[in-house]
Amino acid sequence: MTIITILDLLGTFVFAISGSLVARNREFDIFGALVVAFATALGGGTIRDLLIGVAPVGWMLDAKYLVAVIAGVGVAAFFSTILLKLRKTLFLFDTIGIGIFTLIGIQKALAQGLSPGVALMMGIVSAVFGGVVRDILCNEVPLIFRKEIYATACLAGGTIYLVGIHLGVNNTVAMVACMLLIIGIRLISVMKKIALPKI
Amino acid sequence: MTIITILDLLGTFVFAISGSLVARNREFDIFGALVVAFATALGGGTIRDLLIGVAPVGWMLDAKYLVAVIAGVGVAAFFSTILLKLRKTLFLFDTIGIGIFTLIGIQKALAQGLSPGVALMMGIVSAVFGGVVRDILCNEVPLIFRKEIYATACLAGGTIYLVGIHLGVNNTVAMVACMLLIIGIRLISVMKKIALPKI
Amino acid sequence: MTIITILDLLGTFVFAISGSLVARNREFDIFGALVVAFATALGGGTIRDLLIGVAPVGWMLDAKYLVAVIAGVGVAAFFSTILLKLRKTLFLFDTIGIGIFTLIGIQKALAQGLSPGVALMMGIVSAVFGGVVRDILCNEVPLIFRKEIYATACLAGGTIYLVGIHLGVNNTVAMVACMLLIIGIRLISVMKKIALPKI
Q1: Which of A154, A165, A175, B116 is 20 to 30 A distant from C44 in Cα terms?
Q2: What is the pLDDT of residues B140-178, one digit of tens each?
Q3: Where are the domains of chain A?
C-alpha cells in the first residue's frame, strides 16, 4: 500500500466514526448507523465516480474500504469513552482525510480527461459531499451550507495542487503543499471561528 | 415471463401502492404520488444499477415496470377501501417483493463480476433503498434506520443464497431458501415486535 | 451557438438565480448558495444523464454551463433589488427554461435509443428534478409535489413533440409547438391558480 492509500483508508475510517456518532445521537439502530457511516465515509467518492463515469464505483473493487467503514462503526459503538478523549486526534485525522479525498478526487477526474476546473469541483465533491449525504439521510439542512471554512479549504488546496502540476512542480511536492494548505486553513478557521459570509 | 419476473413485477406493483398511500397521507398531488410511488418501487434497483455500472437503468428497457408502477398508483387512488381490507395480503406481497428484490440485486451484482460481499450489499440496497428514497422525498428520517428487522432479513436471506451457490446447491433451491428465510424473519419480527438494538 | 444552446444557457442562468434566492432565504453561506444554485440549474440534467447512461455528465464537458451558474449566483448576490423589479421577466425565462430542458431531455433519451415513453419521462426529469434536488438540499418537501401545473405542462409539451415527430412533422415546428404549449399551460395555470387534484 502506498502512503496515499493508507491516508485514504485512515480518512475513511475516521469519517465512518464521525458518521456513526451522528447516527448514535439520532438513536438509529445498527443498520441505520452502518448506512450513515457508509454515506459519510464513501458518499463523496461515490457521487464523484458516478458523475465522472467510473462504475462500478471505486470502493466496490477494494474490500479494504468496506472493512475501514465497518471498523469505524465498531469503534464508535464500543469505544465511545475513549473517542471522547481522542477528540483532537480525530479532528486532525478528519482534516487529513479531507485533504486526501480532495487530492484523489482531482486526480481521478483528471485521469478521466476532464478539465482542471471540473477536476477541482470533483475534489471538493469527494471531500464534502459525504457530509451532505449524511445530513440529508438524517433529515437536516447540510451543516456545510452554513458553517466553517471547509469547502474553501479544499478549494484553496486543490487550486495550489493544480497550479503546481501545471507549472511542472514535482507531483509529490504539489500534493504535500495541497495537504498542508487544507490542514492549515481548517485549523486556523476552527481556532479563530472564521466562517464564509452569507449570500 | 419467468416466475422471477412475475414476482418482481408483483413486488413493484405492491411497492408502488405503498408509496402512493404515503403520498396520499402527505396530501401530494397526482404528480407527487407518481414520483413517490416510482421511487419506492424502482428507487432501490435504480441506485443499485447506477452503483454497479448498469445504465440505462433496468426499468428503462422494459415497459412492464412502468406499467406496474402506474397500475399501483391507480389502484391506490381508486380502491383505497378495498386496500384496507387486503392489508395482510399486501403485507405478504410486500415481503415477497423484498425477497425477490434482494435476490435480483445479488444476481445482477455477481453478473457484473463483483465480489459476494458487495453483491450482498447490492441485494440489500435493491430491497430497502426504495423506501429510503421515499422517506427523503417526503422529508422524513428514513423509517428503516429506526424500526423493524427489515434489512437484517435481507442480509440473512442473501447470505443463505450466496453460501448455497458457493457450496454448489441448485440455484432454484438456494433462491427458495433465501425467499423463505426473508419472509420468515420478517413475519416473526413483525409478530413479535423485534427490532435491532440501537447503536 | 445554436438558438437551442442559447436558450439552454439562459434557462440555466435563470434557474441558478432562483436557486440562489432560495439559498439566501435560508441564510446559507456562499458555498451553500453555489451548491443550491448548481443543483437547481443542472440537477435535473445530471440525474437524466446518470439514468440514461451518459457520463461524464453533460455540463462537465462544456464550461459555459458552469459560467452560467456562477453568473446566476453573482447576479443574485449583487443585484437583488433589480431582480425584484424583473420578476415577470424572470418568470418568463424560467418557463422558457423548463420548455428547453424538456426538449433536450427527450432528445438525449431518444439518442440513447430509449422508447418515447421513457424519453418523455426523461424530459420531465430534466425540467423539474433540479427543483426537487434543491428542495431536498434545503430540507423541505419538494414544492412540485404539492403545487402548480408544472410537470403537467412538460408532459403535454413533450407529448406534442413526440407525436409531431412520429407523424413526420418538421423537427423545428414540433419543437416550437412543444415550447408554446409548455409556456402557455404554465402561464394560464399561474394566472388562474389551477393545480393538479390531490391523490
Answers
A1: A154
A2: 999 888 766 788 999 999 999 999 999 999 999 999 999
A3: 3-142
Span B62-118, pLDDT tens digits: 999 999 999 999 999 898 788 878 888 888 888 999 999 999 999 999 999 999 999
State whether residue B17 sits within 8 Å of chain C by CB: no
Interchain contact, C198 vs B27, CB within 8 Å: yes
**Residues of chain A found within 8 Å of residue C137, distances taken between Cβ atoms:** 132, 136, 141-142, 145
CB contact under 8 A, C33 and A196: no
Dist. CA C107–CA A49, nearest whole Å = 25
Query: Partners of A29 in the beta sheet?
Result: B198
Angle, alpha carbons C124-C130-C132 (nearest 5°): 90
Q: How many CB atoms lie within 10 A of CB C81?
A: 8
Q: What would the grid cell of residue A85 be?
A: 478523549
Residues comprising chain A, all counted: 199
**Residue in this structure with the C-alpha cell 433519451, named with its chain if needed:** C109
Whether A180 contacts chain C with CB within 8 A: no
Other Cβ atoms within 10 Å of C82 Cβ, number:
9
What's the ipTM?
0.90
Mutate to test the interface with C, among A110, A115, A122, A145 (most CBs of C within 10 A): A145
- Which grid cell is C27? 441564510
Mean pLDDT score of chain B: 91
User: Is B37 an 8 Å CB contact of chain C?
Assistant: no
Contact A31 B142 (CB under 8 A): no
Q: How many CB atoms lie within 10 A of CB C15?
A: 30
- Those chains having 3 or more beta-carbon pairs within 8 angstroms of chain C are A, B
Considering CB atoms only, which of C20, C28, C56 is closest to A146? C28
CA distances from B164 to B173, B181, C123 (A): 8, 13, 44
Strand-pairing partners, residue C198, are B29
Does the CB of A145 have a partner CB in chain C at under 8 Å?
yes
- Mark out the alpha helices in C53-142 (DSSP H runs): 63-78, 80-85, 87-111, 116-137
Nearest-by-Cβ selection for C28 from A51, A140, A199: A199
A–B interface: beta-carbon pairs under 8 A: 81
Half-sphere exposure at residue C127, Cβ-oriented, CA atoms within 13 angstroms: 35
Quick one: three-class SS letters along chain B?
CCHHHHHHHHHHHHHHHHHHHHHHHCCCEHHHHHHHHHHHHHHHHHHHHHHHCCCCCHHHHCHHHHHHHHHHHHHHHHCHHHHHHCHHHHHHHHHHHHHHHHHHHHHHHHHCCCCHHHHHHHHHHHHHHHHHHHHHHCCCCCHHHCCCCCHHHHHHHHHHHHHHHHCCCCHHHHHHHHHHHHHHHHHHHHHHCCCCCEC
Q: Name the residue among C24, C29, C76 with its Cβ closest to that of A146.
A: C29
CB A57 within 8 A of CB A50: yes
Q: Cα B192 to chain center, whole Å?
A: 22
Taking CA B196 as the corner, what is the angle to CA B191 and CA B198, rounded to the nearest 5 degrees? 140
Residue A61's φ and ψ, nearest 5 degrees, are: -100, 5
Q: C-alpha cell of A50?
A: 458516478
Query: Contacts of residue C50 in chain B, CB cutoff 8 Å?
Result: 50, 55
